[in-house]
Amino acid sequence: VQYAAAKRYKLTSYTLTSAYASLTNAPKSWVLYGSVDNSTWTVIDEQEEKTFAEKNVTQTYSCNSDAGYSYFKLHVLSANGASNVQISEWQLFGDSYFDTYYQDFIQTGV
User: Fold this and answer.
1) pLDDT single digits (tens) 38-97
2) Taking the CA of residue 73 as centre, how many other CA atoms within 13 Å lie in the half-sphere pointing to its CB?
3) Which residues contact 108 (CB under 8 A, 6 or more apart)?
4) Which helix (H) or strand (E) covers residue 39, if one does?
């Protein structure tokens, strides 16, 4: 799953919600990536051996990324027993990212 934002964000957390299907379809292990150019990807978060207690349950994961990204990609490595993965929702939360140049411009006007 991939998402392209309108501007750069510093991700602080994200959620995954298990689907209404069998819990064996819920994601078990995954990697969350961020990119500025949709070409070079950086790992933001990795999770392994996760389970969902029930169907349609939302779980929150924190991120400690100092960089800002415009593109986000969730690469699910495995499900909890099934050969395919299903999620009902993926939400990203963060703050607008301002690089040093932009911050200097705002503060000095130059």
Assistant:
1) 999 999 999 999 999 999 999 999 998 889 999 999 999 999 999 999 999 999 999 988
2) 13
3) none
4) none
DSSP at 56:
T
**Which pTM does this prediction carry?**
0.86
Residue of higher predicted confidence among 20 and 48: 48
Give SS3 for 101: helix
Contact status, residue 81 vs residue 24, Cβ threshold 8 Å: yes
Q: How far apart are CA 54 and CA 62, in angstroms?
A: 21
For the chain, what is the radius of gyration of the CA atoms? 16
CB atoms within 10 A of CB 66: 6
